Amino acid sequence: MSRKYLYLLFAFISFTVQSQEVLTLEEAIEIALENNFEIKIAKNNAKINETNNNLANAGLLPTISANLNNNNSQLNTKQTQADGSVRELNNAKNFSLNYGVGLDWTIFDGLSMFAKKEQLSVLEAQGKSEMQATILNRISNVYITYYDLIQQQQVIASIDSAIVISNQRVTTAQNRFTIGKASKLEVLNAQVDLNTDRSLLLNQKQFYKNTKIKLNELLTRDLQTDFKVINEISFDENLEYTKLKELASKQNPQLQAQILSKKIADLNLKQIKGNRYPTVRLSSGYNFTRSEASLGFITQSSGQGFVYGITASVPIFNGLLQNRREKTAKYEVENATYVVEQQKLTLESKIASLYESYQTNLELIKIEAENVEIAGKNLDITLAKFKIGTITTIEVRTAQQNFIEASVRYANAQYQTKLSEINLKELAGILSLK
């Protein structure tokens, strides 16, 4: 095993032993699905649309109500009869009571109620699409943040290995200075480089901690929860552009939500057109009546029984508002159509761009992996020559920085490839939620 790999192994072990909890990606996704507030809100909104989708909201069911009407009066009354006689009574009491159960049912309204019911079903489906879009987006953020931590973990390991080498340089330079084979300047340069690496490591660790806080926020748990992530990134190299585009046209939640919005606009136009037709209502009930009067020919009466009837109304003229409403609804349908086509074009553009990045990054991974191998071998040779005093510290530092930069580029290439893969799967609606 080359010295490069020993450095990386040492750095990785020294870094990971300090952590306490191993958080797998699957566990992170499970926690987010259970705890994330935005996902919970999206699920509740979907349930609201599901609850609202019923026959009553569409106006297809009758309404039944209990009615009570009690009127009382106490009047000074004076009545003149047909024969000219006059009847008077002070504080004449009058009483009437009506109560019963009534039913009202719209049995025809130009089929608007059926369009309304279909619209409620579409709204329910749209709510589910929006919920799915929210879930995919939040889980995508979990994926991205998790793999960002892996990338940063690898960068920290590279810087750690550089610090090991810088410590060796300081020790070697000090020994060479002690026996008179090097100047104090060489020792000082080695110490400056060591402090530079330490400063870089501190900044990178702070960035790493901030990203862990971000992931804890996505998981909706204590922001200071400590954990470590795995140290490897695997890739799906079987993604095909044509298949991704086909899946996105069928499964992309945002596109499906826009298609459903277009259907809602169509149904809204249908409901408005229904206002041109007659409205027919049935009414029925069972009523009890009772009345009493202190003065008059009838001092007391009562009754009970069924009442029923039918009413119909036909709109004739309403100031041309019907025409304007229909015209507005048609424009809304047209706009919804444009939005769907724009969404399709935007979606295809994103997939094409991301797929190109994905393909390029896969090639970059191979190149950067080779660069890491070359930079590692070069560093091994440089260190060996430095120990026997055949090269300067500047050459050692250059080889050391080349190795760090190659390692960082390799980690970034892996992360960028995974980022493109995650975004492609999110757009295609195939991002795993397990």
From TrEMBL:
Transmembrane segments: none annotated. It comes from the Bacteria. Its main location: membrane. This is TolC family protein. Keywords: Cell outer membrane, Membrane, Signal, Transmembrane, Transmembrane beta strand, Transport. It comes from Flavobacterium jumunjinense. Gene3D superfamilies: Outer membrane efflux proteins (OEP). It is found in: Cell outer membrane. InterPro entries: OMP_efflux, TolC-like. Belongs to the outer membrane factor (OMF) (TC 1.B.17) family. Residues 1-19 form the signal peptide.
